[in-house]
User: Fold these one by one.
Assistant:
Number 1:
Amino acid sequence: MTVDKSVFSPIRAWKYLIEKPVTIPKKLVFDTPREASDNYRGFHINDWTTCVGCGICAEICPTNAINMIEIDSLEQSTGNKPERPAIDYGRCSFCALCVDICTSDSLSMSKEYIHLSKDADTFYFLPESDGIHQIDFDKGYDRDEVSELLDLERYEIDETPIEGRNESFIEIIRGYSKEMAIAEASRCVECGVCTATCPANMNIPEYIRSVWTENLEEGVDYLYKTNPLSNVCGRVCTHTCETACVIGNRGTPVAIRWLKRYIVDNTPKEDFERVVLSNVSEKINGKVGIIGGGPAGLSCAYYLRTMGYEVDIYEERALLGGAVRYGVPEYRLPEESVKEDIEMIRKMCVNFITNTKVGRDISFEEIRNTHDAIFSGSGNWIPKKLKVINVDHKDIRFATKFLEESRDYSRDMGRMPEFEDDIIVIGGGDVSFDVARSLARLQKIKNGKINIKFIARKPIEFLAADQEEVVEGKEEGLELRLNRSPVEILVDENNKVYGVKVAKCTSKLSENGKAKTTCSEETEEIYAKEVFMSVGSDPDFEYFSKEMMENLEMDKNKIIVEENGQVKGYPWLFAGGDIVRGPDIITAVADGHKAAIGIDEYLYNREKI
Amino acid sequence: MKEVKLFLGPQHPGMHGNYSVHMYVDGDIIKKAYPLPGMLHRGFEKLMERRLWMGNIALIPRICVVEPDINEMVYAMGIEKLGNIEVPERAHWIRMIILELARIAIHLMSFGGIGGPTGLYTASYWSIADRDLILDIFEKITGARVYHMYIVAGGVRKDLPEGIEEEIIGLLDYLEKRLPEYEELILKNPIIHARLKDNILLPEEVVWELGVTGIGMRSAVDKEYDIRKVKPYARYDQVEFDVPFGPYSDAYTRVSYKPIEIRQSIRIIRQSLEKMPKEGPVRVKISTGSALRWTVPAGMVYPVIESARGEYGYLMVSDGSEMPYRIAVRGASYPQGLLGVEKYLPGHRIDDASLWMDTMGVCAPEIDR
Ligand SMILES: Cc1cc2nc3c(=O)[nH]c(=O)nc-3n(C[C@H](O)[C@H](O)[C@H](O)COP(=O)(O)OP(=O)(O)OC[C@H]3O[C@@H](n4cnc5c(N)ncnc54)[C@H](O)[C@@H]3O)c2cc1C
Ligand code: SF4
Ligand code: SF4
């Protein structure tokens, strides 16, 4: 372009004198600050009522600008840590990755962008729902499904098809393939909220990471730090960890249980054994007797052996495992899995003394005299009964006995149990579904058809059983008769049971978050040739002497123990599992572990005296 | 002869970024020049090795403050190449809109920026104010004015906000009207002619010797060497645009290419808005799991794009983990900004040093990475 040589060119510049200037006067900048865009990444807003303190915002932050601060006024609860993020705006790059990954949807950014101070320390804030200066700016940037940084949906696990599932006791879940397991493991954000909820405080994020990094041996090592029944728990644990998992806040929780199972199923046997057995210690001078070879007893034995104690387990039944081996049906927990876990404990040189009922085949005193300490984990084996008319009729069948027979049948150790072709199961909890679904399989195998009516007081959403049990039970052919409370077992003139009379009930959510059920006068008769009852069970403490029974502190039918499992008034006696609190395997495992540590402390201190 | 040592930068209105040149002058002729980088060295490349693939998005835009988006684009392209990731169609077009808006923004800034070294400050005020209008659009789309962190591996971070298309068109219309005024003010200005014409030459041999690309190269070697043409990325092969080139590169030619390129960018954006799918996905996830565990398959790639200063690329190496193993930045200003300053700034007059930096296209952090 050439130079403008026109003599008028300077005049053209004059027009700019009357145009609006392109600059903004300083006064306006402060008096009427420009409003930021709707998407603006300004200072943070954090809603403390939804924030769960998982700390993932701090984890993703590329500038390490976020610190998790413990807040005294907040309480630790399931899936919630009493911590909240504080942000150092001297480091923050306003990238909003924290917002995109926030597991609870609590964190967003605002349109606020001014903070002036000469003091660098004032750039550190603990944002709340009204921002950092408490002046309620509008929301700016927020996550949407495109900017999402979590993987919210669970990767499908392989299962046997519904069709034909009820024709055998073959395990339903087949497990993750390597690819799927790694994908599922990659969803974990390692917050550790689950660990706090797990009764055994398992190293969950660590072992999930080992799946992701394909270092399964390390995974086994992590599992056995807190749980020697990982094969069992990888299949049938009640997985409260998954209820806590923060991914569940906006999606489906990480399949923690299935990943544990993946580690156990996919570590080569030699490696597995090497890792586990490397924990055994040389025998030391100390011998502990354990009553009951259920999860609590086995766990206690395992950890005592890692410390070097000699251990004898006295078990009434032919096989070890307790309710796990004589209760849980094989379609959930194959015999092979229990066997592997127990075999590992046997290889640690724990003495298994089976078919020996304490109080019948050997006295409690004898064990007491030949051991330095005793752990009792004898479980609950006496069936509870509902308070209904005719409940003591001899033909009523109970869960424990039946499941034992059924399990023996499915592992080829016994004949098929006897049962009718038209059955009522009374229950509502997981065990009652085990009973009903086992019966369904047996009926199908024997008669080719299923006829089971399942009676419970509550509607589906309030049943104590896992929703999965209900869904699968229905798929397998159970006929659910819910909202009905048994009042009488119907018995005919020939003293034969022919059904159950039930009252109709309604349930609704009460203020404390629990279901409140009320039953009317209106009744109904449901007919069947046989009635099974599965409403819980009680402990059998016959092996304790009369004197002990009088002295033991009890809460209803549970023994009261110290934090470490020590029984009050009997320093050499420890207890755990169902006889102390229950209700599941992992709690029993945790109790066994705690008691082992307690026993070690007790014996160590006693030596010193 | 008496030599005097003078500092150009790091605090100097004529300097581009926190960069400095130590000049030994005799009279007002520069005898020796030593570029001194390191003033804003943050170890970008090293830092990247310690950040998650996603986390780096907060860091890399800073490698060129005035044109940050190119970093996001090459980085995303590298990951996509390593991971064999198919970017959704709509995202390609959104990316082009962002990149061309960014090109206009930096061209405006440096076009008007010529006001600093020449005393024509009106040009700087205008261009900064007009660039702000582009930043307004960026703010609406990405949530930030300068560091957008918007182009991400697999697509873009969010879809366009509703109604932004009309605003962009309005802005383009305005800029088109405005450009003649800039030309009037700058390109026809006798001061500019006196200072820039036949000054600060960039001969073809120097282009080949140093590896200069971009406007410098195109204006010197008479070739249409623009990555968008010779190795098209995104959807540049589906839009029509021209690239100015010529055989004689003085400071004036190089400056005069900027409004031409701005017009071409406007053309590209208009076509993009027309041709892009009006809806559809804008992002695919690069890996399974949470962003904390996104991994990129092992390999080595060198994605390149055309920045306002020329060929801009990252040499990226992944070992398959959740962080890059190594990333090396090829900043487009490296050849002229570092080697060129030392070898070819001497011989010029002191007051041309700033002009040299501006018209050769230097963005300091690109060198200081
Ligand atoms: C049918 C059923 C299904 C279940 N499903 C699950 C599930 O899916 N997930 C879950 O987490 N939990 C489940 N549970 C609960 C879980 O099995 C128990 O909480 C757990 O087994 C308790 O362990 P424990 O060691 O305290 O007792 P137990 O497992 O009951 O073991 C006690 C052992 O002591 C033995 N014993 C008793 N008295 C004597 C004596 N006098 N002398 C010698 N030995 C004796 C018994 O034979 C038994 O082997 C289920 C329970 C049942 C009954
Ligand atoms: S990621 Fe969200 S829920 Fe977790 S601590 Fe941060 S703000 Fe709270
Ligand atoms: S499993 Fe869930 S709760 Fe546990 S560490 Fe991983 S993301 Fe957090």
Number 2:
Amino acid sequence: MDRFAHKRGKLVPLPSDSLVPERDLNSAPVLETRHLGIEFGGLKAVDDFNLTIGKTEIAGLIGPNGAGKTTVFNLLTKVYQPTKGTILINGTDTHGMSTAHVNRIGVARTFQNIRLFNNLTVEENVKLGLHNHIKYGMAGGILRLPNYWKQEKIAHDKAMELLSIFDMEHLANHKAGSLPYGAQRRLEIVRALGTNPSLLLLDEPAAGMNPSETVDLMENIIKIRDTFQIAIMLIEHDMNLVMGICEGICVLNFGKVIAKGSPEDIQSNPVVIEAYLGKKKEGE
Amino acid sequence: MRKLKTTTKIDFATYIGVIIAFVVITVLMNGGMLTRSFSGMLVPICCSIVMAVSLNLTVGILGELSLGHAGFVSVGAFSGVIASQSLVNAVESEPVRLLIAIVVGAICAAIAGILIGIPVLRLRGDYLAIVTLAFGEIIKDLINCLIVGVDSKGLHVLFNAKGTLTVQDLNLKEGGSVIIKGAQGATGIKTISTFTAGFILVMVALIVVLNLTRSRSGRAIMALRDNRIAAESVGINVTKYKLMAFVTSAALAGAAGALYGLNYSSLVSSTFNFNMSIEILLMVVFGGLGNIWGSVIAAAAIKLLPEMLRALADYRMLIYAIILILVMIAINNPTIKGLLGKILPKKKGDEIDG
Ligand SMILES: Nc1ncnc2c1ncn2[C@@H]1O[C@H](COP(=O)(O)OP(=O)(O)O)[C@@H](O)[C@H]1O
Ligand SMILES: [Mg+2]
């Protein structure tokens, strides 16, 4: 057992970890990580990762392929249990929590390799996002008690409302697996929003999208932040998207944070430029 | 009027089809137009339908392979027979006694399901297949050790682990009767199962499984099948819903077992062997994984076909073996899964890659 978990929860946040320090000084940040790390058989995939994200902030996580970005998301959502460090979500230490538990306290995500419930319809996928907000049990469902009809109606309306963010209502009865690539990515975002998160993690949301789809996506990400008043952290290789909508950016390389700051700072940071150019040379 | 969903229509068609089949067969039976051997198969066919529909909940809807469904049927059959036989004098009405037996059979099988499910369903990977296979074999030996009798003082149960005990050791009072005689199984059973009861049980099983599938809980179960990691990421409790599907499946199998057991005057545990488990699995695979009406038709067909084409019976074991191997490959091999992707529901989401 980690006897000091409760003490770490009371640590005063270091301002230097905040991407946008001036935001929400009085309220607890949505996300705080302290010395977060994980090793895979000796390889430090993520090492000493410190980051603070304020409420309603849009943050970017960038870095070359294999830098550890997806691993950070897997740590935050407890797909992997960290081998080092602490994660605080809205001030709550997530030590020992499961993926499902972390979702219930406010973290939702999408996946780099799309993970939809392919054999279920688009509407069912969104209703699964709403799962913990639909209130009836197994018996109610089998016996179709009045509450079943009432709750399913509410869930249906809510699902349609969420789908309308991306104008996807007309796809409600299609199988999720049969949707085109871009629509699948958007559906994953809708499903994640259904869980009513305070922090939404998007893993390469624009991957495979054409430029006009990407522009729409940028507008929608801002719209989602404004409507739902949530923090969004995204991993993305499309620099127009990252520089266009992120208020703060964190750059990873070989599992370590090599730079943090505003888009302008990052663009002119020599360490970042070298990391990217160095990677390009290797690839050639 | 709101447009009905496709799934709603399919469910309705399934219920109506079963009701029509029941009415037609009943009319033919009352008109004396059915052969004896066919009439004798009606209850076993109903039992097989319930077994197949319930196994489909585990294999098709939850996406976990179970190779010991007959074990749950067996638990239901023997507990149902014990319940019915010990209430012969107390409960005069046969339908009421049958109902009690079916409920007891379902509860006992559900308990067996919980005992197996809690440790095994927490594990990731295809452990359920191995453990249910072992369960199906072990339960036969356990029941072979049972000596059960009833008298005015109530139920007497002996567990004959060393093989030294006999019926005499029950020390039954005057007027008492033996229900299970160890390896000889249950004898002197008052057969109270009827086709009508079988029809009602099929309808109940259909309503339970179909309504569950269309509900919040059923969606969670199918989400685990389609992509476990994504299901967890939207806050779904994996163990809870796996257990819910598996235990419901076991309970329905137990109910079918009780009906089956009370259809014959004697019953031995070796009836519920690996072959029976595989036969039920065959019904599920032929009917289509996750396809409930498919299971109904496949169960009836597989029970009736050997009767109609007796010559085929010789090859049944060969067909079982081939199908079993195909099922294993289909469930575990990504390439073949991809090829069969159009026919079978996909199971992925256990590999962590982002
Ligand atoms: N489950 C795992 N086991 C071993 N190594 C892993 C595992 N997951 C990720 N890694 C390694 O961690 C590093 C970072 O991977 P990842 O986070 O996917 O990078 P990216 O920044 O491209 O998203 C890679 O070297 C990868 O091989
Ligand atoms: Mg990645």
